[in-house]
Fold each of these.
Amino acid sequence: MPKSLAFLLNGLALTDSITNMVLISAITLAFKNYVNFQGRAGRGEYWWFALASAIVATVTSTLSATSSFYAAFYGLYVLAVFIPALSLAVRRLHDTDRSGFWLFLFLVPFFGVIILIVFLAQKGTPTANRFGTPPLQLTA
């Protein structure tokens, strides 16, 4: 990892699990546990999946303006990723010792989304909490 990126991540205090999670492993793990709303998910698992989903959604939504095929592909992609993303967000909140019901904060305009992003970016509890043991960190 470039030193400048490591410094940036250290400054954001996101290095403990984001840099230890491989992108493909995060996506694979998210789809393997797509209906698992119990347990915990690390920051790396959540944020790598969010990054990959945002990239694919941006590209397909941009291409959907050019062709109905891409519009259909974008719709299918959103449907395919919705439940895995939801379960991953719930498990991520569990890692910070919060209930999945905190996801309803997105209904509060502006501030709710900001608070939810802060909750999702926080470091998880290092020991077992009421939702289980700390998640395993997948490395390259």
Amino acid sequence: MEKFQKEFLGYRKKDVNQFIQETIEKTENFLEKLKAQERQIETLEKQIIHYQKSEADLKSFLENSAGDPVRIRNYSYQKASRMIEDAQRNADRIISAAIERSEELEQKVIVAEKKLQRFKNQLRTIIEQQTDIVEQIKDLEMER
């Protein structure tokens, strides 16, 4: 348990606030790790299901083919074709997601550039105003 320094009407506010902030950060880190682990478990469960199905298909085929080389070759070609199709679908999905993300980033860059230009204009205006004030002060000093 944290020990807080005491003040007039209770514990020192700074100590309590720091403790609360540290607790919040630890909790957020824990929740992030938990979510990442949940996503990883979900991915692994999907992979297990996929591999179990592949194993069952292969086992069934081997039991039914009884060593017939033509059937084994045909099955191998079919399986290879399905794997290539799956890979192409996954590649298309990944490419689409990357394009979408790049478009989002491009929009963010445009917004950031506009904000930067606005900031530069505001800064230029402030500097001009301060320069005018400095000139006015010089003029007043010279009048003395």
Amino acid sequence: MKKLFVMVSALFLMSIVPTQLCAQENSDNQVSGQVQRKGRVKMDPAKMAENRAQRMAKEYNLTNEQQQKLVALFKEEMQNGKGGLRGGFRGMSKEQRDNMQSAMKAQREKLETGLKQILTSEQYAQYTKDVKARMEKMREQMQQRRNGNPAGNE
């Protein structure tokens, strides 16, 4: 009887401890401004804008003034882009897709115009070169996935 009681108690404790750890982790994420969603951590848009500007500042040797202007530009971009493509284009009609694509194109053009104003011509040239390289890499990865090679390993 004692053995049965000890085993039941141990099982009960083993089921409680992971639940408590998970609850603690979720409260830590909420306190730091992050929310857990489908296995991903969603950051505050303002923090994302700051991180993006910091990465660009390091990569393109930006001044503090340029970095602050980028933060403002990225925050504005995120505010205007609210809602976005939740669920993708699949559930949309052709007219809705066309409207969404034209809105996204206008937003990209506005971002590019802002970047041209903030960055020097050399910085902007390097930025566009890097964007094209990233896009090409993404295309290659997508092609590999379509061909049945999800990890990209040959």
